[in-house]
Amino acid sequence: MQPSFRFENEGGVRRKPEPSAFIMERDMTVPGSEIVSCTKCGSRNRASFTGGKQPLCGRCKSPLVKPSGPVILTDATFEKLLDETPQPILIDMWAVWCGPCRMIAPIIEALAGEYNGRAVIAKLDVDANPRTASRFGVRSIPTLLILKGGREVDRLVGVQSAEAISARLRPHL
User: Fold this and answer.
1) CA-CA distance, 45 to 30, in Å (whole number)?
2) Residue 82 CB: number of other CB atoms within 10 A?
3) 72 - beta bridge partners?
4) Would strands 33-37 and 44-48 be described as parallel, antiparallel, or unpaired?
5) One-character DSSP codes across 8-68
6) 38 is catalytic
7) pLDDT below 70 — which residues of the chain?
8) Is 60 a catalytic residue?
């Protein structure tokens, strides 16, 4: 199926489009693909992580890493994550109605991509999961917990910058 385009000049007469005009008008996205920055050279690549083949950077040919967002935790999945993860875990304790929590959300998303494979970045809604929140004595939100080996090793309360969070997480990597 070809896309239909209407090309007319100022007088209303149809004319055959130039090949470059047609290419610029088409939707060039590939289903199932995403734009990924190379961790080695920083170039942006369109890559598909389905199909079994490891995508490579177009510039430096190093393997591309699929970016990941934060893990969504619940009371039911919390213990499983602690048991299965040897890496440090940064948990954002948040609530839907909390304005500061919404302010820190993009920072948590960015940190999830930055620390992909080195630390687990997670989010836990304290209203929907009160058991885990009370287990750690969360009284204010947003609260960021850093866990290692199943134990709390650090805590940040309130909105924090990406640099401040990274500075507290880095020693536990």
Assistant:
1) 12
2) 15
3) 123
4) antiparallel
5) B-TTS-B-PPPHHHHHHHS----TTEEEEE-TTT--EEEEE--SSPPPB-TTT-PBPPPP-
6) no
7) 1-32, 51, 67
8) no
Q: How far apart are CA 14 and CA 10, in angstroms?
A: 10
Instruction: Answer whether 38's CB lies under 8 Å from 64's CB.
Output: yes
> Does this model's pTM top 0.70?
no
The CA–CA distances, whole Å, from 92 to 11, 33, 104, 109 equal 60, 29, 9, 11
Distant-in-sequence, close-in-space partners of 116: CB < 8 Å, separation ≥ 6 = 65, 66, 67, 68
Looking at residue 2, the DSSP 8-state letter turns out to be P
Contact predicate 111/166, CB 8 Å:
yes
Residues 126, 141: Cα–Cα separation, whole Å: 9
d(CA 85, CA 41): 29
Determine the Cα–Cα distance for residues 136 and 94; give it in Å rounded to an integer. 13
Which pLDDT tens digit goes with each residue over 149-169?
989 999 999 999 999 999 999
Reported residue count of the chain is 173
The catalytically annotated residue of 38, 41, 57, 101 is 101
Task: Please pick, among 41, 57, 60, 98, the residue that the annotation labels catalytic.
Answer: 98
